[in-house]
């Protein structure tokens, strides 16, 4: 069946390509309809898990991803590159500029995806219809037709994503910390190399991991389904009835987006109490226990009531994760932070009763904020005498306990993946992965050779070694090779978890800080660089893999995608470095706490504080045997053994009167451990409201009104996020940044 489909698709595609080549310029709009999602087919599909069928076996994918392709659709066009580079430079520059400010604003890629549509249509209308003959390189379309198509739109979206969609590059925080807080004389060459090495290393690792993270149908990457929904909505005209709802996806998107944008002015500006709706605390504002339990900033946030989408989607959009994943995450939160943490606090374990219950700050032995300057020398190294006279660091209950959970996640993630997905990993390595319709369609294109990504990875590692040696970073050259081992071990396990659940399993910052803290004690800059060359490489790699899946779904030619991602990454990195260096050299009092315009460098300040605790003081003085938090080290073996216990139970107790207990397989310890990675600053309101919305849509509505869910769920996710983002941008630039204030009142 698979070979017959592939042969028919190839024959049909080749005929269309031949016709397009004969005409040189394709001005027909048929492709605007050929890649539509067949909504009627989705609603009538019985959902059989036939991976070799003519559609995806996963309803989430069927809902928003077209299962047909047209290779004649032009992608590598001048208008695509103009838009891609323009959004890359402007978006990366704006996001980097405001990342140095608090409060800040972050332009998400969904905004770029929405704005690209009218600009793409405009370029298609005004650019001349022509192609350039490049001789042996072939022909290049300047403007092939008058229709900005979905594949061009996808590439522009991906270029925006990789360059600024996930925020400023974490490695730019090194530049801020080193220049503004450590007063190091950084050369521009170092600043460029450290950002490029981190970003491009992630690109190479993602490409090498694509057989495991992109091609398998089961790795659906729920995070890109809202992008797919918006793309399909903007380019599709299909409109089937869904549980009595006839409204088109486009009109539904526009109504929800405008409504969400207008509504956010209330919790975001006019009536901010709607965001932190702590009605129990209003009744007893001076009751400490009530504030501990129901407080939404420094408490446990037991009440799930909020009217602010930014609070609900604080961690991730709840409409994107499967319901079983949400149950694991919220179950872990209940156990660890609504049961265990209060017990630790009220039992005064680690002296936590003297500190706030939920806070990300570090304290000294007088319950004051830890004064790092008291234990540092003028050369920014640890003064051991001053440290002994002053105080060790003390952590609030939630902050201390989340480190223990992170230790468990570090071992649970690889153990769980290699137990439950080991066969899948081995099959991909041997080239035995079963291909769904999307993978089969993508095989009709020229593939990107694996050694392209391998060459990038090797070259970047060499540049990393040159960087640490030439610029005297105190990090030995062999540490660059050591840092590369972490992505080699964790990239695929973390990617599989996030690709299935949309939950970020990358807790490697703790591992990198531990290794770097023990090996490079007293060398904070070396600790920071080691961290970004290991942890941040995995983080960037997961972003790249996610966008590769988006290109996979939208049938973007792999080699075009390779050059689009690579060029956008380099251009975005150079833009962010340029903006950072310019601001550090030209903005008065930048990074000081009382900077007049709020440019206090929050990311650089966080990295500086972390480097002092882990790099200067070091984990040996905090977590080693006999130290105050040494008991948390037990979580390493707890994290490793829990997936094994669950697997053994499933293996020998999975049958009940001949029926399999499928729920045992749904117990996912990595999700239970890593799902709470944002605590603090996230509190119970961010998890309880997230779980409530998730279960409402992805369990109840999906089960009861599957047609409605299939047609509108992911469009709703995109609309809510886009409306929130646009409203936040307007509030920031019109109210916050100019220094204006909304009238003060009780709400």
What is the strand and helix layout of this fold?
Elements: H1 2-23, H2 31-34, H3 39-44, H4 59-64, H5 78-99, H6 109-126, E1 131-133, E2 139-141, H7 150-165, H8 172-181, H9 188-208, H10 210-213, H11 225-235, H12 249-270, H13 279-283, H14 288-294, H15 309-312, H16 323-346, H17 384-389, H18 397-420, H19 422-429, H20 437-442, H21 450-470, H22 477-501, H23 508-519, H24 524-532, H25 535-553, H26 558-586, H27 602-617, H28 635-653, E3 655-656, E4 659-660, H29 669-674, H30 684-704, H31 706-736
Antiparallel strand pairs: 1-2, 3-4
Helix pairs in contact: 5-6, 5-7, 5-26, 6-7, 6-11, 7-11, 7-25, 7-26, 8-26, 8-27, 9-21, 9-25, 9-26, 11-31, 12-31, 16-18, 16-30, 18-22, 18-28, 21-22, 22-25, 23-24, 23-27, 24-27, 30-31
Account of the 3D structure:
The relative contact order is 0.17. The termini are far apart. With 747 residues, the chain is mainly α. The strands form 2 sheets. The protein has a two-stranded antiparallel ribbon with strand order 1-2. A two-stranded antiparallel ribbon has the order 3-4. The N terminus is likely disordered. 61% of the residues lie in helices and 1% in strands. Helix 6 crosses helix 7. It is globular and about 75 Å long. The chain contains 31 helices and 4 strands. It is found in: Membrane. One of its GO terms (cellular component) is plasma membrane. Pfam families: OPT (PF03169). Belongs to the oligopeptide OPT transporter family. This is OPT family small oligopeptide transporter.
């Amino acid at each position: 069946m698979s070979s017959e489909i592939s042969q028919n698709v190839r024959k049909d595609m080749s005929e269309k390509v031949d016709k397009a080549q004969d005409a040189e310029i394709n001005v027909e709009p048929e492709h605007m309809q050929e890649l539509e999602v067949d909504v009627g087919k989705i609603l009538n599909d019985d959902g059989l898990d036939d991976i070799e069928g003519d559609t995806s076996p996963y309803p989430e994918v069927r809902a928003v991803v077209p299962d047909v392709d047209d290779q004649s659709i032009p992608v590598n066009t001048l208008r695509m590159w103009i838009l891609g580079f323009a959004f890359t430079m402007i978006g990366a520059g704006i996001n980097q500029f405001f990342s140095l400010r608090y409060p800040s604003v972050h332009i998400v890629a969904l905004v770029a995806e929405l704005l690209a549509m009218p600009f793409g249509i405009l370029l298609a209308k005004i650019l001349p219809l022509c192609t350039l003959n490049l001789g042996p390189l072939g022909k290049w379309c300047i403007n092939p037709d008058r229709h900005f198509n979905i594949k061009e739109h996808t590439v522009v979206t991906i270029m925006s994503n990789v360059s600024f969609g996930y925020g400023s590059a974490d490695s730019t925080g090194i530049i801020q910390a080193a220049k503004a807080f450590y007063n190091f004389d950084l050369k521009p060459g170092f600043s460029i190399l450290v950002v490029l090495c981190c970003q491009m290393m992630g690109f190479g690792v993602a490409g090498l991991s694509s057989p495991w993270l992109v091609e398998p149908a089961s790795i659906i990457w729920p995070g890109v389904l809202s992008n797919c929904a918006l793309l399909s909505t903007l380019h599709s005209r299909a409109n089937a009835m869904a549980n009595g709802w006839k409204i088109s996806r486009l009109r539904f998107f526009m109504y929800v987006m405008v409504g969400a944008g207008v509504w956010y002015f209330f919790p975001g500006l006019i009536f901010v109490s709607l965001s932190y709706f702590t009605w129990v605390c209003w009744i007893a504002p001076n009751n400490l226990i009530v504030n501990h339990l129901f407080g939404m900033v420094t408490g446990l946030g037991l009440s799930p009531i909020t009217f602010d989408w930014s609070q609900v989607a604080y961690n991730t959009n709840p409409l994107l994760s499967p319901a079983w994943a949400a149950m694991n995450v919220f179950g872990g939160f209940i156990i660890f932070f609504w049961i265990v943490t209060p017990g630790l606090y009220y039992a005064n374990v680690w002296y936590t009763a003297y500190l706030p219950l939920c806070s990300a700050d570090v304290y000294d032995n007088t319950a004051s904020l830890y004064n790092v300057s008291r234990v540092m020398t003028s050369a920014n190294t640890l003064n051991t005498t001053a440290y002994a006279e002053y105080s060790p660091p003390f952590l609030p209950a939630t902050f201390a306990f989340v480190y223990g959970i992170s230790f468990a996640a570090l071992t649970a993630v690889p153990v769980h993946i290699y137990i439950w997905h080991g066969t899948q990993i081995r099959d991909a390595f041997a080239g035995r992965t079963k291909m769904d319709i999307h993978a089969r369609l993508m095989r009709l294109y020229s593939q990107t050779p694996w050694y392209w990504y391998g060459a990038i990875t090797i070259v970047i590692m060499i540049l990393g070694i040159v960087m640490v040696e030439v610029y005297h970073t105190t990090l030995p050259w062999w540490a660059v090779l050591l840092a590369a081992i972490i992505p080699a071990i964790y990239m695929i396990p973390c990617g599989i978890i996030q690709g299935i659940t949309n939950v970020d399993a990358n807790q490697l910052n703790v591992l990198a800080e531990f290794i770097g803290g023990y090996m490079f004690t007293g060398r904070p800059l070396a600790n920071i660089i080691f961290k970004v060359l290991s942890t941040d490489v995995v983080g960037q790699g997961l972003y790249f893999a996610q966008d590769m899946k988006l290109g996979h779904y939208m049938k973007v030619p792999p080699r075009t995608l390779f050059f689009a991602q690579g060029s956008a990454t380099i251009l975005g990195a150079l833009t962010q470095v340029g903006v950072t260096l310019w601001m550090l050299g030209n903005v008065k009092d930048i990074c000081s706490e009382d900077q007049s315009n709020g440019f206090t460098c929050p990311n650089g300040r966080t990295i500086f504080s972390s480097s002092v605790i882990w790099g200067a003081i070091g984990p040996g003085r905090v977590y080693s045997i006999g130290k105050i938090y040494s008991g948390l080290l037990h979580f390493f073996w707890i994290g490793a053994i829990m997936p094994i216990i669950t697997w053994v139970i499933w293996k020998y107790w999975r049958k009940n009167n001949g029926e399999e207990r499928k729920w045992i397989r749904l117990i996912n310890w990595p999700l239970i451990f890593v799902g709470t990675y944002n605590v603090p600053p996230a509190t119970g309101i961010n998890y309880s409201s997230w779980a409530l919305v998730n279960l409402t849509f992805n369990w109840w509505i999906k089960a009861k009104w599957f047609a409605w869910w299939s047609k509108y769920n992911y469009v709703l996710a995109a609309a809510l996020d886009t409306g929130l983002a646009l409203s936040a941008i307007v509030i920031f630039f019109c109210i916050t940044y100019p220094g204006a204030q909304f009238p003060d009142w009780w709400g």
